[in-house]
Specification:
By secondary structure, the chain is of the alpha/beta class. The protein has 5 helices and 9 strands. Helix 5 links the parallel strand 6 and strand 7.
């Protein structure tokens, strides 16, 4: 029997809903306290936003965004197990008629190197800490052309965000630490995020 863990949606339309996911190596859904802080930062910006959840894993961030009024979420993960579980969980939830969700089973870096016709307002970057250096992912994200000019990028990593070598057009607008995890919001342009 496959062991499963629960993920709770904190607020919004699906507040309190518990969804199951299958734990895998490196998969650590963003905790409730961190999610609460993040979505407080994003509250004025989120309604109607198009979100990209790279390294989606359990989908905790993209699902929370949809619950709180995001118009769309694209979930990208290279794990077939995580992608299948995400599709299952999305089928359990009822999207509003004006919402869209898509699960893509592919490496985030490979996906970023493809041509994109959709741009995103909010990007969630929470890769397994041992997988991809955030700096490389940020550079590929910038090159991809999939960011709106006012995009916000959430980063979760094991080092302070100040250690990131950010492109000149980005700045850290919010940041905190919770135990061994450093997290915060980057702005693609200075006036982008709340």
């Amino acid at each position: 029997m496959v062991s499963r863990q629960n993920l709770r949606i904190i607020a919004g339309r699906w507040r309190g809903r518990r969804l199951q996911f299958i734990p895998e190596a490196g998969l650590r859904p963003t905790g409730d306290r961190l999610r609460e802080t993040l979505f407080n930062w994003l509250a004025p910006f989120l309604p109607g936003a198009r979100c990209l959840d790279l390294f989606a894993g359990s989908g905790a961030l993209g699902l929370e965004a949809l619950s709180r009024g995001a118009a769309a979420a694209t979930f990208v993960d290279q794990s077939r197990v995580a992608s299948s579980q995400l599709e299952h969980n999305l089928a359990l939830l009822e999207l509003a008629p004006d919402q869209q969700a898509q699960v893509i089973h592919q490496s985030a870096m490979v996906w970023l190197q493809q041509t994109h016709y959709q741009t995103y307002d909010v990007v969630f970057l929470d890769p397994p800490f041992a997988l991809a250096p955030i700096h490389d992912v940020l550079l590929e994200l910038q090159r991809s052309g999939c960011l709106n000019q006012s995009a916000c990028i959430y980063v979760e990593q094991p080092q302070p965000l100040a250690a990131l070598n950010l492109p000149d057009i980005w700045q850290i607008s919010h940041h905190k630490r919770a135990g061994r995890v450093y997290y915060g919001l980057l702005q693609a342009y200075p006036s982008a995020c709340p």
